[in-house]
Write a structure and sequence with these properties.
With 329 residues, the protein is an alpha/beta fold. It has 15 helices and 5 strands.
């Protein structure tokens, strides 16, 4: 096992966590934040392996081969509890946290510690978030809670203050590109997907391995471009079809958000950090038509739409409002 836990990037975070394990100074709760696909879950699971490995080759390391290491990697360890919403973009419910509170009172069955992994905790409803506070305050010494979330602003400050926070940043594009080359991508595809990933190795690998993910992305950005020239009636019709599939709606919003971010960057004079490099002509056309304030407003509308969709607002009405804000080109 490498010094960096066989992970791509986030060396500083691995070093810090290794020190905690080596010195026996683990916190009772850790919060890993960053964009989806940046490596939050991978880092949390590697940390869990270092805490439970039966035959660590060095302090703060893990062998990767013992029963504990293999079961943690497969997320099927008897002392690993995984709590998450039923699907991405869903809602983590208070009943799940109440069940968790019963579990933490039990001693570890096989390993030194009981690990509680709470994925995408920004999806917890308010009751679930408040219920977790009591567990954070009263967790037994042999229990370690690992939370992942997009950012700290989406969580209760009282939860954030009770965790050791590790903010994971996107990786440099050349590093993602090298990683994709190692995974078998040709040079052209590695360069393209590295840009699309925006520094998120998990998302880059998904695009490489799942052709449907890249196909969906291309389809939705084509539809985006067409909508800019569509009439109000055509936009209303599209909103009606989009609202029928909430998961597809959410994924579309994420892609549109990425495009509006590129437009805002170009308006601000930043050409180096554009993600959707294959849509350069469209991005330039929009940047020529919009002010920085207008581009930022469209970006914010998409961000707000993601939040509202999670709150189960009327999806069709939400789609109509968002599409009517699109400029007419």
């Amino acid at each position: 096992m490498t010094d960096n836990w066989n992970l791509l990037g986030h060396d500083w975070a691995v070093d810090m966590l290794r020190q905690h394990v080596s010195n026996g100074t683990m916190r009772h709760a850790y919060l890993f934040t960053g964009s989806p696909g940046v490596g939050r879950r991978s880092l949390a699971l590697a940390f869990a392996r270092s805490l439970t490995c039966s035959h660590p080759p060095a302090l703060g390391a893990f062998c990767g081969e013992c029963k504990n290491c293999r079961q943690i990697a497969a997320m099927q360890h008897p002392d690993l509890n995984i709590i998450q919403a039923e699907k991405e973009g869903g809602m983590l419910k208070v009943e799940q946290i109440r069940e968790l509170r019963k579990s933490v009172l039990l001693s570890p069955y096989q390993a030194k510690y009981k690990i509680i992994l709470l994925l995408r905790f920004q999806e917890a409803n308010p009751s679930a978030a408040n219920a977790l506070l009591k567990t954070l305050e009263e967790a037994p010494s042999k229990v370690i809670l690992l939370l992942t979330a997009n950012n700290t602003e989406q969580l209760l400050p009282t939860i954030v203050s009770r965790c050791e926070v590790l903010r994971l940043r996107p990786l440099p594009t050349p590093r993602i590109e090298s990683y994709l080359l190692e995974k078998g991508a040709d040079a052209e595809k590695a360069q393209f997907l590295a840009h699309l990933s925006a520094g998120r190795p998990g998302y880059a690998l998904r695009l490489l391995e799942d052709e449907s993910a890249l196909g969906f992305r291309n389809e939705k950005l084509d539809e985006f471009a067409n909508l800019l020239g569509d009439s109000r009636v055509a936009r209303f019709n599209y909103a009606a079809s989009l609202a029928k599939d909430k998961e597809g709606f959410r994924e579309s919003l994420l892609l549109w958000l990425s495009l509006w971010r590129d437009v805002m960057l170009l308006v601000a004079g930043d050409e180096q950090n554009i993600v959707n490099i294959d849509r350069r002509e469209l991005i330039e056309t929009l940047a020529d038509r919009l002010s920085l304030a207008e581009a930022k407003k469209l970006l914010t509308t998409s961000e707000r739409g993601l939040t509202q969709l999670k709150r189960n607002v009327n999806a069709r009405l939400l789609a109509e409002v968002i599409l009517l804000d699109f400029p007419k080109i």
